[in-house]
Amino acid sequence: MNDGLRLYLSHFKNGTSPVFKFCEYLNISVCPPTETNNFSVMVHNPIGRASTEVLSFPVFGTDFEVLDSSAHPIPSQVVPVSSATKSVRRYRGNATHNLVWSANLPGLGGAVFFIQPKHSRGKYASELSKVFVPPKLDDFSIENQALKLTFSGLTGRLKTMFNKHSNITVAVDQNLLWWRAKSGNFSVQPSGAYIFSPDGILPHTISPLSLVNTSIVNGSLVQEVRQQWSSWAYQTVKLYSNLPIAIFEYTIGPIPYEDKVGKEVVSRFTTDLKSNATWYTDSNGREMQKRIRNYRPTWKWYDSEPVAGNYYPVPSRIYIRDEDHGVQLTVLTDRAQGGSSLKDGELELMVHRRLFDDDGKGLDEALNEPGQFGDGLIVRGSHYVILDNFNNSTLCHRLLGEKLLLKSQPFISTFPVSPSEWMAKFPTQYSGLARDLPPNVHLLTLERLDHTHHLLRLEHQFQSNEQPYNNTVTVQLADLFTTMKVVDVVELGLGANAALSDIHRLHWNTESHGAKGRYQSAEAKMKSPFIVELKPMEIHTFNITVEYTI
Amino acid sequence: MASLAAVCLLLLAVATVAVTASDDKIYVHIVPHTHDDVGWLKTVDEYFYGANNSIQHAGVQYILDTVVDELQKNPNRTFIYVEMAFFVRWWNEQTDETKQIVRKLVTETRQLEFINAGWCMNDEAATDYNAIIDQMSIGLRFVEENFGPSARPRVGWHIDPFGHSSQMASIHSQLGMDGFFFARIDYDDKNQRLSDKTMEMVWQSSQSLGAAGDIFTGVLYYFYGPPPGFCFDVRCSDQPIQDDPKLFGYNVDGRVASFVKAAQEQAAHYASNHIMFTMGSDFNYENALEWYKNLDKLVHYVNKKMGDQVEVFYSTPSRYLDALNKLNLTWTTKTDDFFPYADNPHSFWTGIYTFSIYRFYL
């Protein structure tokens, strides 16, 4: 990839080009190039629409300034590295802070940011976060323009969420708990890599009465409540400026093993929403599936496992709705997890598991990885929580889901030139798209097949019942891209192995209707300017022939 | 050429029978197959070469070597291959001569069929549609580029994943598949479907796409293995067909009777009089000779002795689908998905949903 980037940059000017580096441990604030040097970051945004992303890089010290791709200073904040992060990274890094800023990125493109020591008179010097422990027993809160989160002074846990734009307040308790795994002999089914087999219907607390130690980080870009349940369970609740999303970043592990009790840790949100035994989970990131507690749509539910039997896959999101009040609580994950709603108003997601028995399903091994340090695995991930009315929730979770799937990618350089030199030699901002795709349209695939052909997939990312974004949209391909003109288009089947016009499926009779049918126009070749029409949840696949314009 | 003509006649015969089959006869489609995990207890390359067999005895290269040899010995024999991650590794090591033989088996005699043909048989619970589409496309494009349109896979074949998602059904439908088969569904769901004869249905997988997301879906009977007593793999210990009456242990009559009984039992739970016997299992056919030698005999003796009740022949899932389709039956529909999966009242496979927790993000 580095070679590819160098090749890309070499198109512009002869001479030395920057070498880019990746940091695989950014999520635990470890990144040697950003900790010791002036640095630049080229951030690539793979989605087909301009995007604002909050970026965060580990640094040593507090005095920095961030310049955007025009070398103009922009606001930034330094946030001290948390004790949770230090407990995970151990000896692997020394960064004291994370330097955070909000970056505007073009669609299918990127921008370069320059980080340098602050000028003594610079008014855009990075803002130092205020860190403090909230007064005992008093409720406390953090807030941005969109949300206010109030925490209990007694327990240290989330107590209410307030959406300012939609004027919705809901009592929400969020807690980290664990299920005790069944273990042992032939008479019970133990939990294992495949099977979830909790002992009982009540999860256990991590700290006595689930009391949590807290501290607050305040600033204009980021606000955090840092929580600690125990030596192995931490969480940082974050609000970013302007974003109507509360981020719950959990850090769990190593799960204690001395007692040889298998533990399956969950994050549980408990609200007073009347969710009527119903919740929704996504199918592989796309259409939502309705789930009903203790119920199966096509056969009689036999209540043999009231917890495990109500768990469903959550590849990307889960939500409950209060139909009477028009309120929806949505949790997006950054990885697939199991999840459920075991009581009305509740949502839970399983975030980590450590087990000491094989479940007898073929693996012949307990799920008990020792990890790099021999004491077990630590898991850090984020839940993105949205509280809003139905329509706003839909828009928010679909667009956020798109970004979580295709996260912006930072390439770090310590190229020793000034921003002005860089700008003279190389572009500091680029976009592959002549115009942004509408919010309904996701750029799923753009893959070079050979010099003149590309594979292109466009997707409508809303469902037919997700008003008001379920409108049919059109995208014109001919001049969609900045560096190439589309001169010919053949629509393919989803697998890109056959022209759509060559695919003929068998017809099957049903009581309702036939299983035949294609939603695409079956024309083998489209005509310029190649206008694609997308209906809800459709994916259209094209082989496009291009002529390069630069 | 003579043998090729015989194959064509056989196919015609099957098709003709299927169209007119309103009789009580049971038509048994023998589907020789292997299920090759693209990485499980061993790595994908260990599985390919058969390395570290102390962990699990499995070597995919030998499966493809011996199957290709055995298919050439009898033009009736069929085989399906599913996991392109292995096939591509094998293909890259073959001589041009072998590749020509394989092309002929795929496109001319149609004995070897690519089924599913993604890079792997992906999990459906904890996967993202983007990755599923990509991995399916890699395999399908390999088949298209190396074997042409006549080899284009027509069947989704997810015999091992632990439950089945609507999106996977929708993707298979949009890939152009005519049907989707799998094995693992909730034990209670399966019991009800067996008694209702609804093991096969049309899955209306997408409310948004409507008919374009519909796909014919079948649940297999004996999980994805052969009927009990009929595993002829090196790793099994079922009795071979001992057909010389002069020798001790002659068992043709007993084996034919058991086979017919298994066919009748399975047919009693399916809507039509065509059934599929999945003859194979995990990493089977490492010595394909053992399977085919016994299957040849089984086909011969069942047809000879019980042909008026049960007709048995080598087939593939797509030939089975074509036979069902020609019956012009009306099928029940399904609109929800196949989660969660439980194989008994206390074994819910819902822990695996939190398995990719260790994935890192940059």
UniProtKB/TrEMBL annotation, chain A:
It comes from Geodia barretti (Barrett's horny sponge). Residues 142-360 form the Glycosyl hydrolase family 38 C-terminal domain. Residues 440-542 form the Glycosyl hydrolases family 38 C-terminal domain. GO terms for molecular function: alpha-mannosidase activity; carbohydrate binding. The lineage of its organism: Eukaryota, Metazoa, Porifera, Demospongiae, Heteroscleromorpha. InterPro entries: Gal_mutarotase_sf_dom, GH38_C, Glyco_hydro_38_C, Glyco_hydro_b, Glycosyl_Hydrlase_38. It comes from the Eukaryota. One of its GO terms (biological process) is mannose metabolic process. This is Lysosomal alpha-mannosidase. It holds the Pfam family Glyco_hydro38C2. One of its GO terms (cellular component) is lysosome. Coiled coil: none annotated.
From TrEMBL, chain B:
The keyword Signal applies. GO terms for cellular component: lysosome. CDD domains: GH38N_AMII_LAM_like. Residues 1-21 form the signal peptide. Keywords: Signal. It comes from the Eukaryota. It holds the Pfam family Glyco_hydro_38N. One of its GO terms (biological process) is mannose metabolic process. One of its GO terms (molecular function) is alpha-mannosidase activity. Residues 28-342 form the Glycoside hydrolase family 38 N-terminal domain. The keyword ATP-binding does not apply. PANTHER family: ALPHA-MANNOSIDASE, LYSOSOMAL ALPHA-MANNOSIDASE. This is Lysosomal alpha-mannosidase.
